[in-house]
Write a structure and sequence with these properties.
Number of strands: 12
Strand order of the largest sheet: 8-7-6-5-1-4-3-11-2-12
Number of helices: 7
Order of helices and strands: EHEHEEHEEEEHHEEHHEE
Largest sheet: 10 strands, antiparallel
Structural class: alpha+beta
Distance between the termini: 32 Å
Radius of gyration: 17 Å
């Protein structure tokens, strides 16, 4: 089992404002399909974006977008600036889980400021800015890193860095990663985009009856 996914959690419930949120994030899509579970939304072979509401918070998953937050010291990229602005409406957590590269990152935005940024690569900690969150301060034991088989499809051992990131994830969302994997409710909308050549991205395909379009047209993320 290898976990490779990235996303953004918004404290604000954007369910009635999805078009406005996607416009702010500069995300374009051609069509959307309902009926996706969390497990389907984060699958690496699903190259579409996924958007849904969990615990009254908005989750947006995209394998590439979160990398447009900088995880270099004293550096900002365009997504940092967007999330800083949007954090006036509620706290925002951007995160990356990349086991293949042994890279784990998160940034926390609140009241138009980035208040925490942490990233670790195989070479070591790359950035550690802002005051540690309370959930980061607790020691991590071997027992904390072992995920029982009844909580995930297979027995899974997390690294200390991965455990730390998922603690932050669970604290912000109010649900653990394991709870979401077991949740079979179709909470997510899959957003299928087209690249600049007009070809459709690889995505988990919803049933034809589930396809619908939003009223607006969005420009593809540059």
């Amino acid at each position: 089992m290898s976990l490779n996914f990235a996303g953004i959690i918004f404290e604000k419930n954007y369910q009635n404002q999805y078009p406005d949120l996607l416009t702010a994030l500069k995300v374009n899509f051609q069509q959307s399909g309902e009926g996706f579970t969390f497990d389907q939304a984060i699958r690496y072979d699903n190259q579409s974006s996924a958007l849904g509401i969990v615990n009254q918070k908005t989750l947006f998953f995209n394998h590439l977008l979160s990398y447009n937050c900088s995880y270099e010291p004293k550096e900002d990229l365009y997504l940092d600036k967007i999330l800083t602005i949007l954090s006036s409406e509620g706290d925002i957590l951007n995160f990356i889980v990349n086991e293949r590269a042994d890279m784990y990152c998160f940034s926390l935005f609140s009241q138009q400021k980035r208040i925490r940024r942490w990233a670790i690569y195989p070479e070591g900690i790359m950035v550690d800015e802002g005051e540690k969150l309370n959930v980061e301060k607790a020691e991590i034991s071997d027992q904390d890193q072992d995920v029982p088989p009844e909580e995930l499809p297979v027995l899974y051992h997390m690294s200390a860095s991965e455990t730390r990131l998922f603690r932050v994830f669970a604290s912000f969302l109010g649900l653990t990663f394991q709870e979401l994997v077991r949740d079979k409710n179709p909470r997510f909308l899959s957003l299928i985009s087209r690249d600049k050549r007009g070809s459709r991205s690889t995505a988990l395909k919803p049933k034809p009856s589930q396809i619908h379009k939003f009223e607006r047209v969005y420009w593809f993320l540059e």
